[in-house]
């Protein structure tokens, strides 16, 4: 894996994050772009010893500042008073390594005045490229599912519109599952996102969203049963990517969509 960065221009944290990122991507050796013959390298002159007559004093150890990413996220999220401010606060959040490998921050799509907020897992390749959630194959299926109950992200009437976001705004490498610590440090932003949008009902797409919001996995048992989170009714559903792999599960997804529609009618 070649690097075009000038290593001397990097601070410690950035250099370490980049190295960890390359290891995650599968790099096993640290090599330069061009071979370097150390036998021909100019020898460094030995450093002259100071003749002070005093024994060398050990360097005092600098305390390493301890950063709590969850606490930092809570402060940044709480201070955000609008969706624009929240997006800016997330863009400025430097403690999640996923940011280093992502092309874009994927914040949201749809109508912020919608009655329904859909929470997916994380951007995939297409979403990372476009900076919008659910634009790949799974997203197209999601749009068709919503259209089947006369709803959608581009619907002008807020009563039929949805607002879409994800637990994570950055694509995990090779679409791996998010780590619990990544979910934990980004959850304050999700919580604030829900507070600002203030939907009537939330739909959780798949296991990761259930883990992040309900603290539980097991979508096969959870789906179709109304839960409560953020003081709102919450419906866990199969993720559309799962439905692409397991089309037989569309029957249950259809039942869940009808239950969502019925809930909205009951609440109006
Ligand atoms: N899957 C998700 O959970 N979210 C997206 O934005 C895309 C695919």
Detailed description of the structure:
The chain is about 40% helix and about 10% strand. The protein is an alpha/beta fold. It has one domain: Uracil-DNA Glycosylase, subunit E (3-Layer(aba) Sandwich), CATH 3.40.470. Strands 1-3-2-4-6-5 form a 6-stranded mixed sheet, sandwiched between helices. A hairpin with a 2-residue loop joins strand 5 (about 225-230) and strand 6. Helix 2 runs parallel beside helix 7. It is elongated, with a radius of gyration of 24 Å. The termini are far apart. The mean pLDDT is about 90.
Give me some keywords for this one.
268 residues; binds uracil; Uracil-DNA Glycosylase, subunit E; alpha/beta; 41% helix; six-stranded mixed beta sheet
Under CATH, the topology can be stated as Uracil-DNA Glycosylase, subunit E
SSE series: HHHHEEHHEHEHHEEHH
Number of helices: 11
Chain oligomer state: single chain
| Spatial extent as radius of gyration | 24 Å
The appropriate CATH architecture is 3-Layer(aba) Sandwich
Report the structural category.
alpha/beta
CATH class: Alpha Beta
């Amino acid at each position: 894996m070649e690097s075009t960065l000038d290593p001397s221009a990097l601070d410690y944290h950035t250099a370490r994050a980049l190295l960890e990122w390359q290891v995650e991507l599968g790099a096993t050796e640290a090599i330069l772009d061009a071979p370097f013959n150390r036998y021909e390298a100019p020898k460094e002159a030995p450093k002259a010893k100071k003749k002070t007559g005093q024994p060398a004093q050990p360097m005092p150890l600098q305390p390493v500042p301890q950063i709590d990413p969850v606490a930092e996220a809570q402060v940044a999220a709480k201070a955000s008073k609008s969706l624009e401010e929240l997006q800016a606060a997330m863009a400025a959040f430097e403690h999640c390594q996923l940011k280093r490998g992502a092309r874009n921050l994927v914040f949201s799509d749809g109508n912020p005045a919608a009655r329904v907020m859909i929470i997916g897992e994380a951007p995939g390749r297409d979403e990372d490229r476009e900076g919008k959630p659910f634009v790949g194959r799974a997203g197209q299926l999601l749009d068709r599912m919503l259209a089947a109950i006369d709803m959608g992200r581009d619907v002008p009437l807020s009563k039929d519109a949805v607002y879409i976001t994800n637990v994570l705004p950055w694509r995990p490498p090779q679409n791996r599952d998010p780590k619990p610590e990544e979910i934990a440090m980004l959850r304050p932003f999700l919580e604030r996102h829900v507070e600002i949008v203030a939907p009537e009902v939330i739909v959780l797409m798949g296991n990761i969203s259930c883990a992040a919001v309900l603290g539980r996995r097991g979508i096969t048992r959870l789906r179709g049963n109304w839960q409560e989170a953020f003081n709102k009714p919450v419906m866990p559903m199969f993720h559309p990517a799962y439905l692409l792999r397991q089309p037989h599960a569309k029957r249950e997804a259809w039942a869940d969509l009808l239950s969502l529609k019925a809930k909205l009618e009951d609440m109006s």
